[in-house]
Design goal:
Layout: H1 2-21, E1 23-25, E2 45-49, E3 52-56, H2 60-67, H3 69-73, H4 86-118, H5 124-134, H6 136-144, E4 170-171, E5 178-179
Antiparallel strand pairs: 1-2, 2-3, 4-5
């Protein structure tokens, strides 16, 4: 009676193992064992699992596989940066998403920082680089700082640092030719004129 029970239990155990390991097929001559990396021999077995082949030596290797199938089945899953488990792919996708947002924000605030620097007397190239790294912090810092003097020319008289004022032309009393109000001589007839304003070049 006990022998009958043991005989009935053994086939049930084998059937459970085969169900978890998939279909059992004939090995190929060039296959190696999935567990010990040694060439298979005639009479060994290959399990067909989700379209993948798992060659195994009959005996110790097959017993170990049946004892801990999950330990070996997990190794059939693809690993790596681009062929990984779903959790790894999600983490990688989030990393690239946040990196892309940071780069886009950096480009936007780098342009804004360079524009602000150009109109506040600072070097736009330098602040483009700072804005690219610090993003909104660089732009806010520029907004709160007073106007700089880094772009003002050096060695130039103060009268030439601004655009000269344009005055309305005045007609010559002798010939009626239009002349600048600061002109001392008519460009048309050469008559002497009384300038109404001092020339900006004479103040330099």
């Amino acid at each position: 009676m006990i022998g009958v029970v043991l005989a009935a239990a053994a086939p049930g155990q084998d059937s459970t193992g085969l169900d978890r390991l998939g279909q059992r097929v004939t090995p190929r001559p060039d296959e190696i064992c999935f567990l010990c990396n040694e060439p298979l021999h005639k009479g060994d077995v290959v399990y067909q699992i989700d379209g993948q082949r798992m060659p195994v030596h009959l005996g110790a290797c097959d017993d170990e596989l049946r004892a801990e199938p999950d330990r070996w089945l997990v190794k059939l899953k693809a690993r790596g940066a681009f062929l990984s488990a779903p959790a790894d792919r999600q983490r990688l996708a989030k990393l690239w998403f946040y990196a892309g947002l940071y780069i886009l924000a950096g480009l936007a605030f780098a342009a804004l920082s360079a524009h602000r620097a150009l109109h506040s007397g600072r070097r736009p190239a330098v602040w483009f680089a700072v804005g690219l790294v610090l993003n909104v912090l660089a732009y806010v810092w520029l907004l709160t700082r007073p106007r700089g003097t880094g772009l003002e020319p050096t060695g130039v008289p103060s009268g030439l640092r601004k655009v000269a004022t344009t005055w309305e032309p005045q007609p010559c009393p002798a010939c009626g030719h239009a002349n600048h109000p600061s002109a001392q001589q008519c460009l048309g007839c050469g008559a002497r004129l009384e300038p109404k304003f001092a020339s900006e070049t004479s103040r330099c």
